[in-house]
Write a structure and sequence with these properties.
With 409 residues, this protein is of the alpha+beta class. It has helices spanning 3-18, 23-26, 56-59, 78-97, 179-192, 234-237, 263-266, 271-278, 313-317, 360-369, 402-405; strands at residues 65-73, 126-132, 170-176, 197-206, 252-261, 330-331, 334-340, 346-356, 379-389.
Length: 409
Amino acid sequence: MTGIQRRGLLRAGAVGALGGTAVGAGLGPEVRAGTAPAAGALDPAAPIPFHGVHQPGVTREVVASAVYVACDVTVTRRRELARLMRTLTDRSRSLCTGGRPPDVGITSPPSDSGVLGPEVPADGLTVTVSVGASLFDDRFGLRGRKPRRLQPMGTFPDDDLDPDLCHGDLMLMLAAPHADTVLHALRDLLRHTRGALQPRWRVDAFGSPPRPAGTQRNLMGFMDGTANPAETEYDRLVWAGANEPAWTAGGSYQVVRVIRMFVEFWDRVGLNEQERMIGRRRDTGAPLSGSAETDLPDYSNDPVGNTTPLDAHIRMANPRTPATDGSRMLRRAYNYDRGLDPNGDLDMGLVFMAYQSDLERAFVTVQKRLEGEPLVDYISPIGGGYFFALPGVRDTSDWYGQGLLSGVT
């Protein structure tokens, strides 16, 4: 089967998987968030400090459970938007801190769903709030305050995007070590913002534990997220720069991409071919020119690609030259599994998420370099969007987007 014929067949399968599925019921209830919890009591994780210059969810490592919910803002006035953001802040702070919900009496609906019991544990929950380009239209008078590089996500040549799985005014990304903590927080946030925030699309996701060690593996069996910038490079590569509106300080451009993997086809490919497409060993995560996951690929002594093919994923994504150094991103990818598609094929893949200081210089540039790579026969980007992760909530008097909304008439 030729590459074009094989790719056509795979694309047809992807279209079949999405056909006739409404987003609210598509990537929502059908997505399965990993394995069932073990029997017996679960010890909740310690709280992660909520206040700070940056939102803590941006830099945290991948954990066991996450949910991505893109929403449309349904209010139309700036003061209503500010009230929405204050509510999100108050509820997020409470959920990330933990405590006993207030008793509102027996005649009123309970103040909490009770999913986590009478005492709500913080359980390492983080809530990351980001805004999309569509929030900066004429509704709220924010057009002049839009981050310079923020734009709706375009379609790249290898994409197969479903419009109903793309974009949004606001993105909520919740993560915690346990799935019930994430779902409890999601219900709470949507309950308290009902009438102002309408979910547009949703993906439940999970992080795999290191097996046997090192970085988590994606559903193709390869370690995912090895070559991230060091923390000392965040100011240059992750956080918004000096040429942005002043309110963006402490924030970051966020890319979310829902990528289906055709795992049945991938499982029929020889291991050597898989490794040459990726550019790493499957067992250890080492580059083909090294012996350990943390070894740097040696491209200078391999100019024609005898060891690491020139079209290997890691080589195209990061050629490791001075000219391409600025295109590196902080990647935080999660797996998803939504069962079977209508054709009876496994419907699973990756929620790729990346943070960067410059959307064009980083993700867009890398994605253009990856056009036509051999891996596109086995994956299909089907949704996502570009967002701007808001600066952190600095103290109890601060709230999400306060700098953005202050003084706007």
